Amino acid sequence: MTDSERPAPAGAAPPSGAAAAANGSNATAAAAAAAGDANPAPGPAVGSGATAAAADDGNPAPGPAAVGVAAVAGSPVTPELPPARRLWIPLAVAGAVLVVAVIVGVSVGPTALTPAAIADALIAKLPWHPAVTVPAVDVAIVWQIRLPRVVLGALVGAMLSGGGAAYQGVFRNPLADPYLLGIAAGAGLAATIAVVAGAPSTLIPPLAFIGGVAAVALTYVLGSGAGRDRESPGLVGTTTSVVLAGVAVAALLTAFQTYLLQQHTQVLQQVYSWILGELSLASWSNVTTILPYVTVSAVVLIAHRRLLDVLRLGEAEATTLGVNVARLRLTVVLAATLGTAAAVSVSGLIGFVGIIVPHTIRLTAGSSYRMLLPVSMVAGGAFLVLADLVARTAQAPAEVPIGVITAAAGAPFFLFVLRSRRSLRDLA
Amino acid sequence: MISLEGVRVSYAGQVALDGVTAQVTAAEWLGVIGPNGAGKTTLLRAAARLLRHEGAITIDGEPTAAMSRRRLARLVAYVPQRPLLPADMTVTDYVLLGRTPHIGYLRGETARDRRVCAGLLDRLALAAMAARPLATLSGGELQRAVLARALAQEAPVLLLDEPTSALDLGRRVEALELVDEIRAERSLTVLSAVHDLTLAGQFADRLLLLADGQAVAAGPPASVLRADVLRPHFGPGLRVLRSNGSLVVLAERMQRR
C-alpha cells in the first residue's frame, strides 16, 4: 500500500500531473498533448487561470492552464480539502419551516385561542412548569386535539418523504416512492377487507400495516429472483425487475380491492375516506403506535446515507468499492417499508409526499443523500403539517381530504421548481 | 501481482471468455487489446469479481473468490468504461467515495481519508476544482477525477477499462502518461483494456491480444503489434509502421477511389 500523502515540494516544482509530465522524461508527449488540446476552457475559474499560466510559461493551451491554476492557487505543504458542503444550512431552513408549521398548526383551529392562552396551555402539562392558570378546556383543545394531530402529521410526513428519498436512492429511480413496491395497494386492500368484513375500526390500522408490508415482501420475493444468473450473473440488475414486480403486484391487489368495493358498495364511503387520507382522528395513541417504527426506520435510513451516495456511482462501482449492494438494498427497503407502512396505517394513503418533497430538495439544495435524507424528513414533516392545516381550515367546519391538498398544492409547486431548473441529471 | 488462470465466463450459454491465463506483476502494465466483443471488458469485470467466472484469479497468491468485498476493494480498484458521474457531486465528494473500502460500515470519513484525497487532488492537478461539481469539468479533468477516485482506494491493482476512449488524442496521451507515472511511483499493477493499438504499444509493458474470448497472442508490444498477428482480427487493411522507435498501427481503406 502506498502512502499517497506526498508532501508537495515547497513552492518550486509544479505539484501536478500534466505539469509533472512536462517536467519528467517524456517531454515530447506532454508538449504534444498541450498543442493538441482542442477543448475550450471549461469554466471561468480555469479561464482566468489560463491567463496566469500563459504569462508564466508562455503556454497558451487550456489543459496545462488548469495545472497553472493549481500552482497559482498555491498548494501548501500539506494539501487540504475544501470544507465539506454544509448540511446545516438546508437542515436549518427545513427545521425553521417545521417549527413555524407546528406553531401555526397548534394555534389555528375552530376555537380561537390567543397565543398567550396556547402558550399557557402548553406549559400547563409540562413537568416543573411555572404556575399558570388556564381553563381546562383550553388545555384539552391544545393537548388532546391539536397537538397530537400536528405531531402525527409531522411524523407521517417525515416518514413518507424520507422513505421516498431512500427508495429513490436504492432503486436509482426518480419515480420510486414508498407506494411503488405496493405498500399503498396492500394497505388499501387490507383496509377494504377489514371494512367489508365488518372489523372494528381499531383493527384497520394494524391490518393495513400488515397488508402494506406483505405486499412489499411479495414484490421483493417475486422481483429479485427474476433475471438472475442470466444477463448479469448474480450481482446486479435486479433493481428494475423489483420495480416492475411492484407495479404488477400493485395492479393485482388494486384489482382485488376494486372488485371487493364493487361488490360491497355500502362501504365505499368509509373505505374511500381512509384511502384519501386523514388525520382528523389523530390521538396520542396513534403517535405512540407509530413512533417506534418511524424512529427505527429514520435512524436506519440516516445511518445508510453515505452508502446511498456510493450507490449513486452505480451498482457495479459500488460493488468494486466494497459495498454489498444486495444487502444495502434489502436493509434500506426493509426500514423504509416498515416506517411507511406504519405511517400509512394511521393516516391513510396520503399521496405524492414521497415524490415531491425529496425532489424539491434535490432541485434546490442538492442530491447528496447525506443532506437529502435528514432534510427530506424534516421538510416532509413540515409539509404535511401545513397541508393538514389547509385541509381542516379551507372548508371549515368540513374537512378536505389531506391527500387532495398534498396533490393540489404540491403538484403546482413542484412543477414550478421542476421547470425552473435547467439540469435534471441528478434526480435519483 | 494479479494472476488469472484459465478464466472462463459465459453469459446465457455463450462463452465470452474462454480460458484466459495471464499474470501481471507489481509495477507492470499489461495492456489488453482486441477487436470489439473480444472479451476485454469481460476479462476486467471478472478480475474485479463483477462476473461469475470459472478458473482462479489470485492477488499475491490469495484467491479473490474467497475474499470479502471489502478486502477485495482494498486490493483492486476498477475504473469502468463509462463511469456514472453524478452531475452535482463535487470533485472532493466524488474522490472521497473512493475511500469507502477503508471506512467502516455506517461510518464517515476520517481525517486520514481526507488527507489521502487531498494528496491525490494535488497530485492529479484537481486541487483548483476540488469544490466544483463534476458537471463543470472538462473531459480530461473528469478522467483525472475518476482516476483519483480509483487511486483513493489505495489498492495495489488498478483495472482500467478503456480509460481514455472519451478523450481527444492529446488528452489520451496525457491521461495515460499520468497513469504510467503513478504506476511507477506506487508500484501499481495495471491491467487495462486499450482501444488504440498505437497507444497500447507505447504505454504497456506487455500486451495481451484477445479474440473471441481467447488469448491469441501475448508478449512485449513489438511481438504482438505485427501485421501478421493483428490482421486476422482487425482486418486486412491494418498496417504497422515504425516511427521514431515506436510502432504505429493504422487501418487503411481497401477500396481506392
In short:
The complex is a heterodimer of chains A (428) and B (257). Chain A contains 18 helices and no strands. Chain A has 428 residues and is mainly α.
Radius of gyration of chain A: 27 Å
Structural class per helix/strand content of chain A? mainly alpha
Please trace the helix and strand order of chain A, writing H or E for each element.
Answer: HHHHHHHHHHHHHHHHHH
Q: What is the helical fraction of chain A, as a range of percent?
A: 55-70%
Give the CA-based shape of chain A.
Answer: globular
Looking at CATH, the homologous superfamily of chain B is: P-loop containing nucleotide triphosphate hydrolases
Largest sheet report of chain A: none
Q: Approximately what portion of the residues of chain B adopt beta-strand conformation? A: 25-35%
Query: What do we call the CATH topology of chain B?
Result: Rossmann fold
What secondary-structure arrangement, pairings included, does this model have?
The complex is a heterodimer of chains A (428) and B (257).
Chain A: H1 17-23, H2 27-35, H3 44-57, H4 62-72, H5 88-107, H6 115-124, H7 136-171, H8 183-196, H9 204-224, H10 238-263, H11 268-276, H12 284-303, H13 305-311, H14 315-320, H15 325-347, H16 353-365, H17 369-393, H18 402-419
Helix pairs in contact in A: 1-2, 3-4, 5-7, 5-17, 6-7, 7-12, 7-15, 7-16, 7-17, 8-9, 8-10, 8-11, 9-10, 9-15, 12-15, 13-17, 16-17, 16-18, 17-18
Chain B: E1 2-11, E2 14-24, E3 29-33, H1 40-47, E4 54-59, E5 62-63, H2 69-75, E6 76-79, H3 91-97, H4 111-123, H5 139-151, E7 157-161, H6 169-186, E8 189-193, H7 197-203, E9 206-211, E10 214-219, H8 221-224, H9 227-234, E11 238-243, E12 246-251
Parallel strand pairs in B: 3-8, 3-9, 6-7, 7-8
Antiparallel strand pairs in B: 1-2, 1-4, 4-5, 9-10, 11-12
Describe the protein in words.
The complex is a heterodimer of chains A (428) and B (257). With 428 residues, chain A is an all-alpha fold. Chain A has a domain at 148-419: ABC transporter involved in vitamin B12 uptake, BtuC (Orthogonal Bundle). Chain A contains 18 helices and no strands. In chain A, helix 6 crosses helix 7 (136-171). Chain A is globular and about 65 Å long. Chain B has 257 residues and is of the alpha/beta class. Chain B has one domain: P-loop containing nucleotide triphosphate hydrolases (Rossmann fold, 3-Layer(aba) Sandwich), CATH 3.40.50. In chain B, 33% of the residues lie in helices and 28% in strands. Chain B has 9 helices and 12 strands. Chain B has helices at residues 40-47, 69-75, 91-97, 111-123, 139-151, 169-186, 197-203, 221-224, 227-234, and strands spanning 2-11, 14-24, 29-33, 54-59, 62-63, 76-79, 157-161, 189-193, 206-211, 214-219, 238-243, 246-251. Chain B has a 6-stranded mixed β-sheet with strand order 6-7-8-3-9-10, sandwiched between helices. In chain B, strand 4 (54-59) and strand 5 form a beta hairpin. The longest helix of chain B has 18 residues, at 169-186. Classes of the chains: A mainly alpha (428), B alpha/beta (257). At the A-B interface, helix 1, helix 2, helix 3, helix 4 and helix 13 of A face helix 2, strand 6, helix 3, helix 4 and helix 5 of B.
